[in-house]
Structure formats: structure tokens, C-alpha cells
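Weekly structure sync, notes
Attendees: PL, DS, HV (note-taker this week)

Item 1: Glycosyltransferase 87 family protein
DS walked through the input record. Source organism listed as Amycolatopsis albidoflavus. Sequence as pasted into the shared doc:
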Amino acid sequence: MAPARAGTAHPVRVVAWDLVFYLGCFAFALGTALASEFYGYRIWGNFAVAGYGLAAAHSAWLTISARRGMQTNGKFGSRWIGIGAVVVLAMCAPLLMLVIRRLTGTDWLITPFSWAAQPEVWVIERSADLLLRHGTPYVDLASLGRAPQVNDYTPYGPVMTVFGLPRALFGGNPVLNALTDARWMFALAAVLCAYASWRLLNRPRVPVFAAQLAIACPLTALTWAVAGPDLAIVGLLVLTFALAASDRPGWTGFVLALVISAKLIVAPAAAVLAVFVYRRARGENPWAATGRFAGALAATTIALHLPVYLANPAAFTEHVIRFPLGMGAVRSPAASPLPGHLITQFVPAGTAISLVLVGLAAVAMLIWLARRPPATGSAALTRTAVGLGALILLTPATRYGYLVYPLVLLGAALTFRDSGPTARPPRNGRADATSS
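Item 1 (cont.): predicted structure, written out as C-alpha cells:
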């Protein structure tokens, strides 16, 4: 829904949903503030309790007004007030505090109760420093002179290093260290990608429900404050779909290569985008458009990976391939109690069963793509959200924080759907049933 106009009343069920949503978020934030083992999470929880509490109070007022048939006049009657409270108090305020708190120096200690930034922030910043000094962002484990630890690993592609370069290049004193914290870079990338996507779609109306899924959800707000790389990556991923929806297959392949070369988890999106590009091809052979997409994707991916691989093939293989697959010298600590992990832990031959389920989900996704190829950006985003959600839920070792990917993609899908006639129709005319 758009912000309320003066003299209008919201439907009761709509504002009642807002109230339920913010109360659920409030409960999550309160539990995090009281029980999390991580210092940054607890700080976020304290701020987020205030943000979600204000959003819930505002939604309660709107709900009571709607039930009584009262009009909610002026800007204070807008449902966007709740989103604003979350952005200010549950995202920006805790991020600022944690960036300043980080200057006291608790990185790299095995003390989660003191971390002002999650390890991925330190690791990405270190990877940039290593790239500048050694030509590779990956630690050579053989040169450590000790047994490797989990934080010695950089389980990302070489593009992720870009977000740590400002600190590696300009850091060195408290002011510059605060200004170049990688979390600012992640946040900036996410915001710029969202804005660019919105512009590519000719500025569609953003539904409040879409903003709740993509922005106000606790997974997004928490990630924004304590870590951030997943928000930058999902922002870039949304941008690839906006490029595809505006019929730019070459640029779609190029940006997708950046995404995959930062974090491999989003690689399944390539299949959806290939089908979407083929379906939308306008004024040219659809195979030619798909070829431009695939060529840009392949060439850019090779160009980004090959120099880093050649600099130290063993380190590249250990960090980027073996560690995420659970085959490294140190096992990944990712062990959120999602279905795949629970099956692995408590069912005989659970790892094999979990991997079979992942394979079956992949086959189901391919069948869905083949039988109902997406003709709109909204449909393509929805398929990607479902596919990534299944992968995250069923893989043997993962983190619940990765669920931010399907949530943001679903929020984006709602906005893409509302872009309506501003997005050009597919090659065969208006979107039909295959796009649903």
C-alpha cells in the first residue's frame, strides 16, 4: 500500500497485519537482546526493541482507528511511519554505535560477547589487505605455522574483497577506521542497487508489505547493523533482475558475474535469469539474447577468478571450494537448526538424505522453469526466492541469516509486480499464465 492520504482510513485487516508483524519482530528483538551470545546482536536487540515497539504502537493506533471507522489524517496516518521507525532505530542507530564501539579493539578475539562486528566484516577487510600485499585475498594456511582456525578462512569469491578496500587503503586512525568500516560499504551498495533497480523499472510504487519483507524484517535489520555482506549481494542480485526486465541481457550477465564472484550461494539464479532473458528477448533471436547473457556471465566470471587462482591455486581451492563444501582443514561452524541440518544430525545417513533433498528441489525448480517460464521480473524473482529458500533450508550446514535472501527477493518481487505497464512486455506480447 502507498502512504495514506489525508482523510482516508486503512482497511482493518491491513493495519492489523502490520501490528502482528511488528509485534513478532519486537519479540524477536527482545529475545535477541536478552539471550544472544554476541555483543553486537544484543546491542542491536536493545535498539530494535525501541524501533519495533514504536512501529507496533503506531500500527495499534491505526488498527483501533480503522475499527472505529475513524480517519487517520496527515502524514502521521501513513503506514510508512513504522518502516521509518525501524530504519532509524533498528538499523542506522545500532550500526553507528557498533562502528564506534569497534574502535576499542575486539576483533579476532574468540569472545563473541565482545564483538562489535561479526567475523565476516573482519575477514573481508583482511582479504582486501592481503590482496594488496600478496595478490590474493586468501590466507596461505600452510604458512601460518600453526593449526588453522575458522577465522583464517575467507569463504567468498574475489569480488567480495572490494568492500574491504576502503579500509585497507585509507584506514589507520580512529576516524578513518570508523568511516571505512566495511559495513558502510555493504549498506551503500545495497541502497544504491535498490535505487538503481527502482529507476530501471521507471519508479514503481513500493508496497508497504514489500518494504516490510525486504527492509523491516529482523533478518535484514540485524544483518545491516552487525555484518552486511548478504545485503550488498542480494541488492546486486535484485539489480540483475531489473536489468533483465529492462532488456539488457549483456549487462545482466555482467552484474550476475559480479554477484556470483562475491558469493557462490546465489549461483542458482543464473538458471532463472537465462530462462527469463530468453523469454523476454525483443527485436532479436531469443538465442542471441541468451548468448549475450551467457557470454558476459562466463567471460566476466573467468576474468575475475583466474588471476586470483593463478596467484595461489591451493589457497583459492581451500577457501572458495573445499571449506564451503565441508571438505577443508577446518569445518564450517554454520549449524543453524534448519531442516537440512536437523536431518543431518538426527537421521541415519542424514547428510546423504539432505543432499538428495537438495537435488530433488533443484530438479523441481528446473521442471517449474521449463513448464512455466517466467515472463516478468516479479515471476523470475519469485522463482529465485523459492529456489534459494529451498537450498538454504535443506543443505546440511547453513545459517538462518541466509534466509534474508528469499525475504528480500520476495519483497522485490512485489515491487516489480507493481511496476505494471512501466516494464516492457515479453517478446510474445503481454505476460500470460506462464509468468505466475
